[in-house]
Amino acid sequence: MAKSKFEYVKEFERDNCCLPNCWIVVRIDGRNFSKFCEAHQFNKPNDVAALQLMNRAAITVMEDFKEIIIGYGQSDEYSFVFRKDTELYKRRASKLMTNVNSLFASSYVYHWPRFFQGKELYYPPSFDARVILYPTDKNLRDYLAWRQADAHVNNLYNTCFWNLVLKGKLTPSQAEGKLRGTLASHKNELLFQEFGINYNNEPPLFRKGTTLIRKLVPDGTGRLKPAVVPLVDDIIGDRFWKENPEVLGLKS
Ligand code: DGT
Ligand code: MG
Ligand code: MG
Ligand code: MG
Ligand code: MG
């Protein structure tokens, strides 16, 4: 077929391919979810339905993109890790990132009514996305540990903050002042002394976030079928990785 004289503009396109042998992480994060959560009256500091909807959208992404080996989500963010040897879209970063991001966003909206029966979605949410490459298994594990540690630090702070505001009747700025510069031990003590809350008994979903991995589960006919399974577990220590060696494909 003859090419048009305009064809040369295609040469301006540049592929941004991910380096070989690296784990490819795509992380999405809700855009201005401070406002989105407020507008939709999410429970503070954690809304179970909202977290479950995030998980549902992430499962949809992993059911479609089979080369994602693990997902980890907390708050308004989700990380997806592609196999280090994936050749999907010739490892083009923009293809991987934009496809994951738009499927996540559309799934979030698609599944909304099931998680928020009767609650209207007032405006379309959107998410940012980035691609990060990790050359070693240790780097990848440290990345996931970093996100889970972040969930813990933020949740401890937010649990204190919202108890001080909602039960302690402090203004937001008073609560902020009271918590500024305090250590985790102080926050634990504050929750216990002032509100009788043992932080370690708070729901693990809030403290640890959700990890999605693939497991073989019975399909009802006695056969085992691969499925994306949500786990609420510690992924910082070694135990999780020893119990699930297939995730990183480690030789035992
Ligand atoms: P960004 O990401 O820079 O566009 O801005 P934000 O506002 O999304 O900020 P980010 O991602 O650092 O923080 C997440 C916000 O979402 C934070 O304001 C807390 C809120 N959020 C997340 N999960 C929940 C929830 O379950 N309940 C409530 N009430 N708020 C939540
Ligand atoms: Mg942000
Ligand atoms: Mg956000
Ligand atoms: Mg966030
Ligand atoms: Mg096309």
Gross morphology: globular
Query: Mind telling me the C-alpha Rg?
Result: 21 Å
CATH architecture of the domain at 19-149 and 204-243: 2-Layer Sandwich
CATH domain topology of the domain at 19-149 and 204-243: Alpha-Beta Plaits
What is the CATH C level class of the domain at 19-149 and 204-243, in words?
Alpha Beta
Structural class: alpha+beta
* Total helical elements: 8
Task: Provide an overview of this structure.
The protein has helices at 33-39, 48-64, 93-115, 137-166, 172-179, 184-195, 204-208, 239-243, and strands at residues 23-30, 68-74, 77-82, 127-134, 210-218, 224-231. It has 252 residues and is of the alpha+beta class. It has a domain at 19-149 and 204-243: tRNA(His) guanylyltransferase (Thg1) (Alpha-Beta Plaits), CATH 3.30.70. It has a six-stranded antiparallel β-sheet with strand order 4-1-3-2-5-6, sandwiched between helices. Strand 5 (210-218) and strand 6 form a beta hairpin. Helix 2 packs across helix 3, helix 4 packs across helix 5 (172-179) and helix 4 (137-166) packs parallel to helix 6 (184-195). It is globular, with a radius of gyration of 21 Å.
